[in-house]
Design brief:
The complex is a heterodimer of chains A (about 475) and B (about 375). Helix content of chain A is about 35%, strand content about 15%. Chain A has 14 helices and 20 strands. With about 475 residues, chain A is of the alpha/beta class. Chain A folds into two domains: about 260 residues, Aldehyde Dehydrogenase, Chain A, domain 1 (3-Layer(aba) Sandwich), CATH 3.40.605.10; about 190 residues, Aldehyde Dehydrogenase, Chain A, domain 2 (3-Layer(aba) Sandwich). Chain A has a seven-stranded mixed sheet, with helices on both faces. A six-stranded mixed sheet of chain A has the order 9-8-7-10-11-19, with helices on both faces. Chain B is α/β, with parallel strands linked by helices and about 375 residues long. Chain B has a single domain, classed as Alpha-Beta Barrel (TIM Barrel). Helices cover about 45% and strands about 10% of the residues of chain B. Chain B is built from 14 helices and eight strands. In chain B, helix 5 runs parallel beside helix 6 and helix 12 runs parallel beside helix 13. The chains are: A alpha/beta (about 475), B alpha/beta (about 375).
Amino acid sequence: MSPFEYAPAPESRSVVDIASSYGLFIDGEFVDPADGTMFKTVNPATEEVLADVAEAGETDIDRAVRAARRAQETVWGPMPGSERAKYLFRIARLLAERSREFAVLETLDNGKPIRESRDVDVPTAAAHFFYYAGWADKLDHAGFGVAPRPHGVAAQVIPWNFPLLMLAWKIAPALATGNTVVLKPAETTPLSALLFADLLRQAELPPGVVNIVTGARETGAMLVAHPGIDKIAFTGSTAVGKRIAREIAGTRKTVTLELGGKAANILFDDAPIDQAVEGIVNGIYFNQGQVCCAGSRLLVQESVADEVVDRLKERLATLRVGDPMDKNTDVGAINSAAQLERITRLAEAGTAEGATRWSPACDLPEQGYWFPPTVFTDVSAAHTIAREEIFGPVLSVLTFRTPDEAVAKANNTPYGLSAGVWTEKGSRILWMADRLKAGVVWANTFNRFDPTSPFGGYKESGHGREGGRHGLAPYLVDGSTD
Amino acid sequence: MSTTATAPSHGRAPDGPAADAQAPDGHAPEVGARQGHAPERSASEIADLARRVVGTSSLDEASLRRYLHGLPGVDQVGAEGRAGMLATRSIKTTSKAWALDLIIRMIDLTTLEGADTPGKVRGLCAKAVQPEPGDPTCPRVAAVCVYNDLVPVAVDALGDSGVHVAAVATAFPSGRASRHVRLTDTREAVQAGAHEIDMVIDRGAFLSGRYERVFEDVVAVREVCRENGATAHLKVILETGELATYDNVRRASWLAMLAGADFIKTSTGKISPAATLPVTNLMLEAVRDFRRETGVQVGVKPAGGIRTSKDAIKHLVAVKETAGEDWLDPDWYRFGASSLLNDVLQQRQKLRTGWYSGPDYVTVD
């Protein structure tokens, strides 16, 4: 028994009102689905049903796309950029004002620790709206020709790992550039998007500019296939991304894809060790490892491998796993039973193929979907856990001897989303960044997100960039190419 | 034990971090066994240990520089980020009550003013022994910390209360005096009955790279602390605000520990910034790593700038999560503070009664 156990410090859920059921947000109104189909969304930490949510079908999607088209052609497209900016600034401010409400709801629906939704997801989402609000009246000077134009109606399909933040990454640049939006949140995490719809009404955004259609994979497929869509933005699995790319081949639709990853976090022997250990933890246990750019492969220089693994294990023993609503929780619940099953299966493959598995002692709650922070050592490049994206709190530790070998091993994956380099030597950081095939290379940090910085993949991690000036490009038709 | 005298060892035992479990040369680790202060070590044992860690047959300028500059670097952004994360911990109800009492027991109640008088010091001593008149459950502080010339007053006032007398010495706060003067300053405090000596390092020597000189200063002061059967414990003040970089703080921490410090202390309280959370957390990493490598546990004392219970609780969180629970004890962690105590007392009253009583309900000393 520790003398300094932290007493429970639960965040209050009374700041947010969850309705018993939610309709679809189309043309500025919450409406019932045409065929009346509903599905349930649960709190993954307790398996408690939070609400019934409408499942959008063909008719609903058609309504939403038509509303978006009308709003784009009559209101949002013709509106001067400086006016669009005012709406975006208003949305950003309201998000900041209602941040506790959004943080609590996000944690309830997703299972992530309140510390993360409070300190990362919600403030970063607000920051994206602030950032893109600033671009709305400067598009003529942003390097996309003299008078770049919006595509029209954007279909946006987002994942469950950062529901509100991915919504912000998608909606903010689309609106800044004069597009209108039909957004489909993930099946397991629709609630923060529906609260966001309420915020849009509060902001008096013109009806139809943003439409939110909830549902499962079929809803997303119907939305993407709708002939009224001009532009698709998808974040999710590589398999679905490939299917979208195939389906829209030969149509007028353009697409940006932000897909999977199997990032290398590369640690040299001259790294700032204490901060590097924090970076490893932040790289793979942040959001329970359910992060496309997670540092799931630790490549550590062999000369310090044992020491780093020992220090890492010591650090993991201090991680606090459990109730996501407790302000002191570091690692929360896995988002769904299906995801837990996938993580469990891949981890078992790791053991079966001969890697050594380790987790700190931690009592997992009985109810809900839980997986302990896990480290695999004795991992070789051929192991399944070193190649497949697990999307869970599972780290594979591999070693290297020289910088060239580190680059070769880091790039030896079909993915190319992110990488981390830990060394005190500045020249080596630049040398590595030149050679790593990854859209983001973090130096002496990991999983840092900023609206000013473009994010996106190489190879099978997708194409197109979100964030920064680069993030405007996918939503604009270059004015100089007409 | 074979060690290489040329390659920087990055602060690790040549056999790796877990090697001390095998105790390659008889320095058995005491990990996990909390036993108050470490067993008394002789000057030659300390020197032997330092030579082993540094990997040299003779401790000199070159070997110390090679060793200290081979310690892993500190990334400023990451170090401050980690401290910021620790500061978000929410300590409530029972754990807060436990923490407040521990904080009181860890306080070195301090007065270090030119205007200090025997009357002022006697008042402070009374407060140290009985911080909360009328509440026998309120613990005593760890020590009263005064200038050298007021040690007899404090010794007399505290008697056998169990509260220690700590004296700042070695030409505190600047340390700008000859070694003879600094040692005499220390000797007078020890002879007057100080249980603990808070010395300052020569920051000028450190910043100009004369590590051997700083090392020898600490060794010499430690000798004086142990003269004629005295057993004064030695806290070594790094004055981190003048060392400026985190890399320097890490090097100075190791230098002081190698030279035999019982405690490493952030600041004199006369320079700003003083005991910031990132600096303290870095020193907690240093004592953790030092014990891992040598088996010797060293205490940490942040001083200066910790004025509220909230700040002090953040420190306890850092102690628990970085160094470990073995350091959650007044033998291994102290707060150098003057105004902190009254804030803790008010928080303590709030927990007991449910309302804030206000500053008129704690004593002014």
